Amino acid sequence: MSEAEHVPAAGTTSVRRSRDVPLLVERARTGDPRAVARLITLVENGDALLPAIAAALAPYAGQAQVVGLTGSPGVGKSTTTNELVRALRAHGHRVGVLAVDPSSPFTGGAILGDRVRMQDHATDPGVYIRSMSSRGHLGGLAAATPQAVRVLEGAGCDVVLVETVGVGQAEVEVASLADTTLVLLAPGMGDAIQAVKAGILEIADVFVVNKADRDGVDATVRDIQGMIALGERGPGQWRPQVVRSVAARGEGIDDIAAAIDKHRGWLVEHGELRRRQEARAAAEIEAIALGTLRARIGSLRDGTELSTLATKVAEGATDPYTAAEELLAQLAR
After folding, report:
1. Among 2, 51, 110, 208, which is 20 to 30 Å from 333 by CA?
2. Per-residue three-class SS string for 90-159
3. What is the pLDDT of residues 25-37, one digit of tens each?
4. Alpha-carbon distance 56 to 29, whole Å?
5. Is 162 within 8 Å of 66 (Cβ atoms)?
6. Which pTM does this prediction carry?
């Protein structure tokens, strides 16, 4: 199902440019990579068809296991993702990969290097790989990533791997999207203090210490385990797993997959999977609602309402909170 290498089929041109949502969803359900690509492109562009696409994909929500991979640049996220795809395919799973790449602050373009690194699976019809530009969105993901996950669920993927940009400790948005979050680290990329800082390390369900053939791996593992021990957990709560790997040689990948499966079992057993799915849906609804409000506020800038309120605040005739209430009341009308 790889988008890049699939042999053209009849009707390719119509699918690539189609705005027929039922047709695109039907084709995506059969594994047509061009239909999947077209749907994700429409999602990324915030097309007017987005509500219709979301409605058509709604029956397939929650059917895929969503695994997030995050960590600082250079820890081996892409290599680990590539090897996880290989392991999942060996077990017969259909896999989707969303690899988010940083975009230029000047042109908005992206190198999309993750797709280059994953060419091993380019001709595998059971794998769909999509690089997405972050387009300036903070948190390590692209704004369209949640809806792109829904597209891959609708396309019949059993597992969706979401690889974040890799920007550092503030990259925590993936935890609100994934069922299981993997945080990758590597020896020699920070001292012991890094292991107890707030931020990215607090979102891990599984820690992966990659490049475990380097010096200092034992100290890195001890630091992580010490941080985990400091956390307060009630009876039955999940304790993050720590796994070693050398992804470049395919070592430890089965251990990572086993840790993901173990966490999945815990999620189901304790009802946490449903809670996370509902929290994810709530975040999507909130984001869509806020986006709509921002668009409406933007339209007010073209009129006189916002300018009038701004003038009153600048002159001291009213305060910004009262003005904001008036603005919201106008939006409601």
Report:
1. 51
2. HCCCCEEEEEEECCCCCCCCCCCHHHHHCHHHCCCCCEEEEEEECCCCCCCCCCCHHHHHHHHHHCCCCE
3. 999 999 899 999 9
4. 11
5. yes
6. 0.83
